[in-house]
Amino acid sequence: MKRTKIVDVLKSTVCDIDVLVKGWVRTRRGNKMVSFIALNDGSVIHNLQIVVDNNNFDEELLKKITTGAAIAVTGRLVQSQGKGQNVEVQASSIEVYGTADVETYPLQKKGHSLEFLREIAHLRPRTNTFGAVFRIRHNMAMAIHTFFHQKGFFYFHTPIITASDCEGAGQMFQVTTKNLYDLKKDENGSIIYDDDFFGKQASLTVSGQLEGELAAMALGAIYTFGPTFRAENSNTPRHLAEFWMIEPEVAFNDIVDNMDLAEEFIKYCVQWALDNCRDDIQFLNDMFDKGLIERLEGVLKESFVRLPYTEGIKILETAVANGHKFEFPIYWGADLASEHERYLVEEHFNKPVILTDYPKEIKAFYMKQNEDGKTVRAMDVLFPKIGEIIGGSEREADYDKLLNRINELNIPMKDMWWYLDTRRFGSCPHSGFGLGFERLLLFVTGMANIRDVIPFPRTPKNAEF
Ligand code: ATP
Ligand code: MN
User: What pTM was computed for the model?
Assistant: First the structure.
């Protein structure tokens, strides 16, 4: 007989047929006569109830069916008499693939803290919570690819190892095959990279944007979706050293087109989650975050506020004048901290905000400069509970302006010639942004810590598993 997944068994409209199911035992309870096994195979959050007439089975076999054991069950699918499920399986034969020792299997009882589960990240996908999170994670990846594919964007693969350290988005991890115990240095004490693998200093990428721009200037509209690395030492609930980023880049889009795209994109993903991950989201809503579904539906209803940075600062300064306390000072020119972003979104407007036209000093060199000489056409999308979920901009398309900014910031030209070539040959207005995949997942799952939406988080002093 062919195995049926539990997700399909539970959807079955026919009864009194034989089925073969395989999965892991969540619980076994019952009495001398009968056992009830809650079986889960990861295909869906719900368990399938297996009813076992103990008299028909060997006692030694039944003893092995404990929480965590992997089993196969053949039996009759019937309408359930009990509460909590429509159907159940009356076991006719059971095979135990792998036992799980009652004394040592860590997921014995329910209700472990998320902190503890992080320490057993190799087992936590077997919990309801992480099963839900990782099924949603998969679904969001599908939503993202579907969204861009339907819009005619091309999925473009930018390199993960890069030799330009000018991306300017954060501290980079170095990639080397050199013997770190025995480094050759020149007379100034600088490391000689000539004999290193790439013949020069190389790192893990912090963003695929620069290469993404090259592609947009040829294919028109592209997106990247890949791992990104930042060695910033920020131990926060919203930062990882290794995270996944989605970066669309579109030729001929200006900043308004860019904002429209970002808003449509996020709403599409949220709608997808509500349509396709309902059971998992309902579970997370009930267990962790009673406002989750309401917040997801709220985002779909609202038009995002679009507000210049300068206006945002005025609102925050007014809040301070009226007695609101922030940890970090706020003034024109300051980079917004998460507390400021969340004040605008959660307290002032009560809906997502796209903040635009930031001071050029706090933004990257490639952003289009405004006529005022002070600000650039940047846009950050700020979300409830998250703060910044997207950062993007219209790009500077003018060769001279871009070169000036590169010189002002002392960015080495040897790294930039290929990027500047886009502005020498057929330059055009273009825009793009980066969405942090795990920040989107924080929003959609309602989880509070970014370590709980990626299978194996990498953070300062932590690279377990
Ligand atoms: P933040 O100010 O929150 O540190 P950033 O301004 O450095 O973020 P960008 O360089 O604009 O981030 O990156 C684009 C997007 O990538 C961000 O909007 C965010 O969603 C995500 N992101 C950035 N850094 C991280 C990180 N360390 N871990 C997870 N996601 C991140
Ligand atoms: Mn940013």
Answer: 0.96
